[in-house]
Design brief:
HIT family, subunit A; binds 2'-deoxyguanosine-5'-monophosphate; 115 residues; 22% strand
């Protein structure tokens, strides 16, 4: 499995994406195939293949990903009605792009359990 993915290229500005936020540590952009009216991906700029690859040194980064999602949800007007954060990990978790990412989904009623 190559370590470089399309998300790595988006983070570097080498591939197009509808960026909604970017700083030194994280990048957020619209999902190319939205599963909800609001569907944003929040990724660490450093390459971590999956959540399994994060370690103690990544504790602050993982928190930052969540707080970035929280802030974008507020900015996009979905915080009060509600939203869902998803991290898919490896094949049974439904991960298809092997660069760690949070999905921020909102704008419709979510069902449970996920498929
Ligand atoms: P996951 O299955 O959790 O690995 O989610 C990967 C998501 O990435 C999926 O919802 C589709 C999205 N995606 C795949 N390729 C691209 C791309 O080139 N650009 C953007 N913006 N999103 C992509």
């Amino acid at each position: 499995m190559p370590t470089e993915t399309i998300f790595t290229r988006i983070v570097r500005g080498e591939a197009p994406a509808r960026i909604v936020y970017r700083d030194d540590e994280v990048t957020a952009f619209h999902d190319i195939s939205p599963a909800a009216p609001t569907h944003i991906l929040i990724v660490p700029n450093k390459t971590l293949r999956t959540l399994n690859d994060a370690g103690p040194d990544d504790q602050a980064l993982l928190g930052k990903l969540l707080l970035t999602a929280q802030r974008i949800a507020a900015e996009m007007g979905i915080a009060e009605q509600g939203y869902r954060i998803v991290i898919n990990c490896n094949s049974q978790g439904g991960q298809s792009v092997y660069h760690l990412h949070l999905h921020l989904l909102g704008g419709r009623h979510m069902t449970w359990p996920p498929g």
